[in-house]
């Protein structure tokens, strides 16, 4: 199998490349700033079984449609948050029917959530009154001052970066069918920090001369029948907390799921190539729709 990896920095070099190799792919890369097989997507003159786009957000659409137009790969995985709107994503899927576009949803493919999934699927379990799903990073702001904290380039901040992971937790807990029944009742976001607060970050280098104008904390409340679901995400929260807490009348149950393990990225590629495409279209369109309210660019 052959894979084309577009974006040879950070997550591309450290996660996607080794995972693709482990899965048996021959990998070629595209990057204009780092050592790569091609320094420009226009120079790619081969075909591949799959393409993976993990470049800055503002480049996703142009790269994905270029690959589709040139028939470079029949399946394209696009890092979250995908494209700018649900309509753009849906129209692209419709326009290029010979190509499958799949938003990267690596958190769907981790195997560390068996306990919570078993609990939510057990009809004998206590009635769930409230579920809290958290993704709070102690000090993992992605490359402060770079494109990810510039709303003109990233489209937005923490919600676009982390909420797709938390939406995947929804789907793991209740399956994709629940998307038609869950309703968002409120949402909010705020910018708590600025460049002057970015003395360091555990997640990428800091450009003190760059831009930091995106929201770095966001929260939502949902209702699924009589169950309230609260989710929150923060980049620089002072604590590390990736957890699910289920509250019943008499008890609370907590599962710490932590950061996504690298192997899940490889599983996502392998299983995504085989799974029903309509399954992904439904999820990806829904995720895009929820993210629209958080676009700041």
Using brief descriptors, characterize the structure shown.
six-stranded mixed beta sheet, Dihydrodipicolinate Reductase, domain 2, 297 residues, Rossmann fold, single chain, alpha/beta
Explain what you see.
The strands form 2 sheets. Strands 7-8-9-6-10-11 form a 6-stranded mixed β-sheet, covered by helices on one side. It has a 5-stranded parallel β-sheet with strand order 2-1-3-4-5, with helices on both faces. It folds into 2 domains: 2-107, Rossmann fold; 113-259, Dihydrodipicolinate Reductase, domain 2, CATH 3.30.360. The mean pLDDT is 93. It starts with a strand and ends in a 6-residue tail after the last helix. The protein is an alpha/beta fold and 297 residues long. The longest helix has 17 residues, at 158-174. The chain has 8 helices and 11 strands. The chain has helices spanning 10-22, 60-69, 86-95, 114-121, 151-154, 158-174, 263-274, 277-291, and strands at residues 2-6, 26-30, 50-53, 75-78, 100-103, 130-136, 183-190, 217-224, 227-234, 241-247, 252-256. The radius of gyration is 19 Å and the shape is globular. Helices cover 30% and strands 22% of the residues.
């Amino acid at each position: 199998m052959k894979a084309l990896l577009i974006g040879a920095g950070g997550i591309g070099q450290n996660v996607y490349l080794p995972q693709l190799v482990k899965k048996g792919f021959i990998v070629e890369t595209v990057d204009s700033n780092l050592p790569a097989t091609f320094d420009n997507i226009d120079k790619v003159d081969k075909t591949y079984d799959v393409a993976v786009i993990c470049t800055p957000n503002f480049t996703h659409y142009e790269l994905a449609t270029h690959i589709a137009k040139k028939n470079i790969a029949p399946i394209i995985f696009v890092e979250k948050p995908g494209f700018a709107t649900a309509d753009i994503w849906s129209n692209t899927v419709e326009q290029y029917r010979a190509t499958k576009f799949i938003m990267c949803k690596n958190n769907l493919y981790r195997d560390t959530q068996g306990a919570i999934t078993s609990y939510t699927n057990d009809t004998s379990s206590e009635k769930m009154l409230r579920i809290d799903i958290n993704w709070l990073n102690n000090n993992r702001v992605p490359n402060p001052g770079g494109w990810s904290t510039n709303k003109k380039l990233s489209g937005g901040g923490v919600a676009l970066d982390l909420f797709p992971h938390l939406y995947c937790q929804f789907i793991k807990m209740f399956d994709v069918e629940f998307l038609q029944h869950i309703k968002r009742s409120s949402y909010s976001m705020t910018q708590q920090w600025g460049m002057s607060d970015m003395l360091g970050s555990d997640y990428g280098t800091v450009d003190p001369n760059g831009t930091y104008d995106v929201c770095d904390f966001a929260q939502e409340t949902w209702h699924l029948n009589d169950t309230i679901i609260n989710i929150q995400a923060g980049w620089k929260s002072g604590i590390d907390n990736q957890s699910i807490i289920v509250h019943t009348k008499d008890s609370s149950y907590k599962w710490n799921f932590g950061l996504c393990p690298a192997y899940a990225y490889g599983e996502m590629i392998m299983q995504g190539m085989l799974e029903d495409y309509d399954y992904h279209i439904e999820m990806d369109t829904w995720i895009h729709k929820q993210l629209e309210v958080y676009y700041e660019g």
